[in-house]
Amino acid sequence: MQGWEDARHFINKHRLFRWTIIPGIIYSILFIAGMFFFWQSSDTVVSWISRQLRIEDWLQKERSEWLSFLLVMTGVMLRLVLVLSYFSFFKYIILIIGSPLFAYLSEKTEATLEGKEYSFDWSSIKKDCMRSIKLDLRNCGWQSVYLLSLIILSLIPVVGWITPVIALLMECYYFGFSMLDYSFARASFSPSQSIQFTGRHKGLAIGNGFLFYAMHILVILAPAYAVIAATLSVHKMKNS
Question: Fewest C-beta in 10 Å: which of 6, 77, 85, 236?
C-alpha cells in the first residue's frame, strides 16, 4: 500500500498526471468492453458444459436442494475463474501494447528519483519493450497452464470453491512481476535473474498486482500507477 501512496505523491509532485490519463482512457474503454464480452461468453461456456453433462435433467430427477446448491456454487466458481482467465489474456494484450509507455514512465521515474535530467532514448525504450514483450509471452504461457488446471479443479464441488482466490493471487503475481521487471532491466538483471528475484520476493509482486486490481474502482488510474509504484518500490530496495 505504501508504494501506491508514494506513487500518488510522486505523480502530484512531478506533474505526471497526464501520463496516467492517456493510458487510462484507452485501458478503461478496452476493460469495460472486454469484461462485458468475457462475462457473456463465460455464461455460454457454463451453459454448454451443463448441457453436455445433462446436469439439469439429473437435478430434476434427484430433486435434492443440497445437490442444487453445490452445483450452483460450482457454476459460480467456474464463471469467476473463466472471467479471471479472460482478464489474464486481456492484461497481457495491454502490457504488450502499452510497453513503450510503461518503459518510458519507469525510466522517467527513476531518473527523477536520482536527480538526473531525463532524455528520451528510443533505443533504450525499444530494448526494454522487446524484453517486456518476451517476458509477457513467457508468463502468459505458464499462467495459461495454471489457469487450465484451475478451471478443471473448479468443477469439483467444495474443493473447487477456493480456485477464484488462487486465480486472483496468480493474476496479481504475474502483473506485479511485469511492472517490476522494467526496473530490473535497468539494474542489469538478466531475464532469468529477474524471474529468480521475483520468485524470492513474491509478496512484493503480489502486493503491487493486488493494488492494481483494487485500483479498478478508479480504472483510469490503474496502469500508470502500477508501473510508477513498482519503480519506487524497486528503487527503495536498491538503496537499502
Answer: 236
